[in-house]
Amino acid sequence: MRNVKYLKCTRCSREYPALPDMTTCDCGGILDVVYDYDSIRTSLTKETLRERADHTMWRYRELLPIEEDTVPQGLRVGSSPLYESERIAEDLGIKKLYIKDDGFNPTSSLKDRASAMAVTKAKEAGYSTIACSSTGNAASSLAGNAAASGIKTYIFVPSRAPKGKIAQLLMFGANLTAVDGSYEETFELSKKAIDKYGWYNRNAAVNPYLSEGKKTVALEICEQLDFIAPDFVAVSVGDGCTIAGVYKGFYDMYRIGLIDRIPRLISVQAEGCCPINTAVKENTPLRAQEENTFADSIAVGVPRNADKAIKAIKDSDGICVNVSDDEIREAQKYLAKNAGVFAEPAGAAATAGLRKLCREGKLEKDATVVTIATGNGLKDIDSAIKTVSEPIHCKNDLKEFEEKFGLK
Fold this sequence. Notes:
The protein has 408 residues and is of the alpha/beta class. The chain has helices spanning 37-43, 46-51, 86-92, 111-125, 137-149, 163-171, 183-197, 210-214, 216-224, 241-255, 275-282, 306-315, 325-339, 345-359, 381-387, 398-405, and strands spanning 4-9, 15-16, 31-35, 82-84, 96-101, 129-133, 152-158, 175-179, 200-201, 232-236, 264-270, 319-323, 368-373. The model has no long low-confidence stretch (mean pLDDT 95).
């Protein structure tokens, strides 16, 4: 990999060669990919991006950890829309609000970015089977991208995973195990199986390349905003891999000179499961918490990527905010009614946190903010139906229709 220098442990700073199947440091720390930014800044410029026909996540190939001759695997991932919502910005009392709708990815979540990277690295390393544990989205995205690449999958999810995600997994042909237990127990079972059978490990908490896939959402935001960095970016947080990736993307763009500053990150967690935000706010070591939220994608009581997430929040001078399940439900309806974006609970959590901060007067009036909707609402229809009212039933009778809607 011409532009990759090495992998570096975020805990002890030990360096490793960037092998395709490398996972964690011997000390147990998470590894980070270190790039040769001086070289990249000469080849990845605004001009080269304008001329580039590839509109997938791989258009930023110079900043991605793959071999020069590697053919990217998986589905068509990336280039999700960035909507400006003047209505929501005015309602929140800020200058500008943009919604990055990553539910447009092929399996309807941001996790496709990590999974496309995972199957590409698995192919590089010569693996024919790949496995992971997941609360749902990482699992379905892996199954879809692996199916497109001809790779066999073993997937582990908590039995509480929404039916929409289960349906995707089964349709994609995954070898699916629904674990009767927490996400922590699900992760432990996947680890035992991966260690025993030697499958490629897609678990984002231990695979250093997956946040490199996720960071492409930030690279796209920079390009879509004509390389003018927003003031804040709101991210829903579970195991910490997504917010770590978002920070890395902005950091990369800053280091190669395409943006002049790194946005402040807003880390949003559910009140019923907020170990990362608690550790940051209290400046204490990470402590396990109950997984007490209906937003399954961020219900991670023992986040495995906490080191990178906490560093991302602190290094960006970020803000931590926790939201209730009711606030998440309200944000789902708010996004849908005011911007036409149907986000699953975890995907709307970032907006719930942004609304809370604005109500409390904690954001500047002249702020430009991006909120990331990480997954589509069709992933969890049961939760969506419970959030809104049932349809009004009516016979084929205009008078009855008018009476029920108060029309004249």
